[in-house]
Amino acid sequence: MIDIKTVTVSEKGQISIPTSIRALAGIEKGDTLLLIHEKDQILLKKAKRLHKETKDEFSHLLKHSEDVAKKLWGSKADDVWDTI
Question: What is the overall mean pLDDT for the chain?
Answer without folding.
Answer: 81
